[in-house]
Amino acid sequence: MSFPTALSTTRSAPIILDIRQISKSYQGVAALENASLQVRKGEIHAVLGGNGAGKSTLIGILSGVTQPDSGEFLLEGSALAPRNPRDAIKSGITTIYQELSLVPALTTLENIFLGRELIIERAGMKVLLDRKKMKNEVIELAQIFGISKDELDIPISEFGALKKKVIEIVKALTFDARILILDEPTSGLEEEERLHLFDHMRNLRSRGVGLIWVTHHLDELHGLADVATIFRDGRTLESLNLENSTVGEITNLMFGIQSNEAGLRTKNDRLQKDDKSNRPEVLSLHAVSRAGVLRDISFSLHAGEVIGISGLAGAGRTELARVIMGIDTRTSGQIFLKGKEVNFKSSAFAYKAGIAMLPEDRKQLGIISGLSVAENISISNLSSVSRFGFIISRKKERELATKYKEILSIRTPSVNQKINNLSGGSQQKAIVARCLNSKPSVLIIDEPTQGVDVAAKTEVHELIRDFTSKGGAAIVIASEIQELLELSHEILVLRNGSIVGRIENVQNSIEKSRVVEIKAEVLALSAGKRLKNEI
Amino acid sequence: MKFKNFFFRSVSITGVPIFGLLILIVALFQFVVPIFNATVGDYITNLVPVLLLTVGAAIVIIGGSIDLSIGTVCGLSAGITMWTLASGLPTALSILLGVATGTFFGLLNGFLITKFGINDFIATLATLNISGGLLIVLSQATELYGAESEFFTSLVYGSFFGIPTSFFIAGAIILLMQFLLLKTILGRRIFAMGNSGAAANVAGINVRNVKLATFVLSGTLAGCAGVLLASRLGGVQAFLGLGYEFTAIAGAVVGGVSLAGGRGSAAAALAGGLFIGTLAQGLQLIGVEPIFFGIVSGLALIIGVIFDQKIQDIGQLRSRFDSRVLAQPPRKEGDHG
């Protein structure tokens, strides 16, 4: 797979950001070593690398959060050394982080002008905000990015993920940003929203802004990024012109290994293909509803099977998982586990009955941050590491964790490390270990690979396949349709809390290379549109 | 390098800094006021009920909540014990009723918070007033007294091998709580819940029951404290216990129990409580007027917390350093570019 040309003209554009030999180490350990890269005017410059390759350190330096030990960077020819984020923004470098940095209760306009409000003076006293003037100043720009005049007066909390990102972009532009750093801008966005965001990025490029785009999603680069710089072990390896590079080449550079196209190729030979009816039913839902969130959800899950759940954010995907786990209550309907009706009052009962869940938001809901890796692994089944049913044996706990560390290749020098010190991929694998240790017959996985690099992603997929090949059943929730296609036997599409479509025999269809069609179908169903013929 | 590792590890273990400070001021007072040693047994005997409250406060705080009612519940427990003793109930039964009063209020707090979803601060503020009010009614705003049980008096004034009985009682209870927090399944769940309630909920912990358990423990400890307090005082005033909750919470916090939840231990809380108590005692011996104690203990709280945070920062720095090492992908041999 090779990338078709984006805008080849940008190669002759002047360099606006010149990063020269920047190094930074933390207590003797190099996070960046002589990193160099150049961003041209009107260029989308992708920054790639595995977890811990040094990308975040570079962003930290450019945005003034940390200062380099040596080296310098020039913005439009003059050297810059921002001491704090405010300095960097004033000089024209704005960073848009993965996490939202807008104030939810304030309106769009208030957010855009936060900290530098225009003020009306009355009797020599600065009293009132000059809303009119602020509005006039921003309205034109806002409209270019699809924010209407009315939307300027609506609190941020009312908007979806995409709009919030766009508002941050507009805010950056009113600060006269010449370099815009986007850190994983598509995380949390739906497929369609991603495409809209990409349009906005093209728009920024044509305005002459230099974009630094940090991403784990190599498939997104296609037709959008002009140049990519690859980071590994704190060094910048190479700046590639994306016209002539393949995904395979990039992953090789990123990891220094052949990572078999790193999960970009569909690979589901390990999925069992025999008829569903041969295998026992493990979990079934009959008309399960939760007022205002879920309506009449019914499906049945068999041993060795993976059901994928697709749908836009707010369609009820995560809510469905929470209702099955007993974290939220259902208002009607029945759930059967191995033929017996169940009604869990809390997730503790679900785990005991054999359902485990890997939650969506790893930082908030997945890891228990103050605890060690071992403590995080054992927490869902503490009786597996205890004596007399109530005293925890540290030794048993360590042994258990070490076993999983080796099986799942969790990267940590010791299982006694605090889990927050691990990379995203290893944290995710530790939570997989936690789930597996509760000996589940059903595994519910919400966004299995969010914020995880390509190599770890393949490994997590392997773990899921391994689990089902041993007779386990799984429900996988994912925004990326590609991911669902790679893992599931059947895909359910949710919209407004109801199942609006089912795609059965997914792997047979993939063999007949209907991948693009299925993707289009799922997208159309999620958005509530009719299937378009031209796709 | 070995020493450096040891240093970083020990300062990041909660409770170690405050133990250091405690030893420091004890040594200081011994040096400045030679009679300090002779008074140690006495002032710790006075301190014992508050130390039990401090450990109870710590358990709830580690679980991520706060219990404001412990002071007045302790007072009410003392009142109930005294009242039933004075009305001629057997000593053992009176003691049991005193402890049960604490357990009851713990259950009440727990249910208000977990069943009805009332904010912990508000719920325990309400039960603070209720338990305090009940003691006023019970004592008819005067004083309860008249216990004529030698066994009851011996809880505090008796001694084994020259050590007051109450030391053994409180010591056993605190040891048990330390064991419960650090070694048992319930303890682990309390830490997990305090670190991240939402994540614990998803990981299969019945957070409501665990939260309920922390309040029952803290209530029961307040009950025990009340019984010991009644035994020591011999009479229970209408407003007994009011304000103890703040001394207890301050002690726990000075000991390094994080108000954010998920960090601390019974031993750390004990050290914090002893620190504040020792400071007050030492100042009194030096000759500082008791009217200044409020100011001094307030300042001690601020200094203690700042000290603990700085120490934690050093620990953090250390672990951030570790995370840098971890974040580096393993380097392949002969791979230099």
TrEMBL record, chain A:
A Gene Ontology molecular function term of the record: ATP hydrolysis activity
Domain ABC transporter per the UniProt entry, residue ranges: 17-258, 271-519
Keyword terms: ATP-binding, Nucleotide-binding, Repeat, Transport
Name of the protein in its database record: Unannotated protein
TrEMBL record, chain B:
Transmembrane spans: 7-31, 43-61, 92-114, 121-141, 161-182, 212-230, 236-259, 266-285, 291-308
Places the protein is found: Cell membrane
GO cellular component, one term: plasma membrane
GO molecular function: transmembrane transporter activity
Major localization class: membrane
Protein keywords: Cell membrane, Membrane, Transmembrane, Transmembrane helix
Pfam families: BPD_transp_2
Name of this chain's protein: Unannotated protein
Source organism phylogeny: unclassified sequences, metagenomes, ecological metagenomes
